[in-house]
Amino acid sequence: QVQLVESGGGLVQAGGSLRLSCAASGRTAGTGAMAWFRQAPGKERELVATISWSGGFTYYTDSVKGRFTISRDNVKNTVFLQMNSLKPEDTAVYYCAADSKRLWSGANYWGQGTQVTVSS
Fold first, then answer.
1. Residue closest to 35 by CA, chosen among 88, 94, 90, 118
2. Rounded CA separation 118/120 (Å)
């Protein structure tokens, strides 16, 4: 089993930055590609970004391209989401997810989420 714990959320003004972290523990040998999702009130959970096990392949949803950067440290079993130029519409609970495969194909494990609130 793999446990994922997110941190770094909070309240920030529009135009500000936050860096989310997701630490994996347990049977981390079973984790491959990682991803960040978010869910705003009244909306479905959406995929924000993914990163392959090697870090060589990344994907971003259009609304965050050029503003968010996903990265990972496999020594520390941690994935990051650097969020710059934040907008009120980025307000959501952000979830970390892990796939057992090296290229993202879907979530096998989920974190509990961390709240990000962007004020206008």
1. 94
2. 7
